[in-house]
Here is the input.
Amino acid sequence: MRFSLARVPDAELGAFQNLLIGFAVAFLAALAAGQLGGLEWSDVWPFLALGAIAPGVTQVMFLFALRDIGASRTMVIYGALPLASSIGAVIFLDEPVRTALFVGTLLVVGGAVLLAHDPTKPPDYRPVGLAWALSSIILFAGRDNLSRWLTTDLEIPAISGAATALAGGTISIFFYLLVTRRGQGLFAQIVGSVRPFLFVSVTFGLAYVTLLESFARGEVTVVSPIIGTYALWTVLLSIIFLRSSEAITRRLVLAAVLIVSGAALVAATQ
Here is the structure.
């Protein structure tokens, strides 16, 4: 996504392409899995509403964070998402809680503090990106728990749920762009930005399908921490491909280790 934003520095348009192309991928996956037949409005509207916020609004916030603080720092902060999701699962889904949840909290907070006080920043670093990332985490944590509830208690097929959620996100961001970019040739902008965001958007769609399938099959307190290890993978890939623009430091790597360790501790003991 950082490479795509370097070619088309428009986070809102990038978010829309993520959702639109991701929806197309999820729709084809649901069609192939035979999950589109027999769906009723009562099955569809909860995911449409959920998708309008997450991944709809949150995808824009996520891309703002990528733009303002870089991929590695954004994903290190996102390493705290499993903790937020686990706390929500304990409160709202009656999933079990153990002492390790509090120890994991301390590790995650320690990593966040290290990250916030890292004196080395990328050239285009803007502190508001931290706020974008933290705010989207809260919304994504709600998404994780609602997805688990919808696909288990209401028994809605996960892949069709993913496609519907992405459709809701696409609709919400489209109307946002329609209002904010009136008279600016929006459709030409959309067509012109398909190619730069195509690969990452297809990947996003596949990831969203597997995400909801995971929540349909496993508890939030187990699945979410496993997913949260992407913080370490992102830092590793940033070291390889984005070293010059990401300002990778030992403090950043340590922050990633602390945050993911905290999340992993929660996963291992829940």
Remarks:
- Residues 2-269 form one domain.
- The two ends are 33 Å apart (CA to CA).
- The chain has a mean pLDDT of 84.
- The chain has one domain: 2-269.
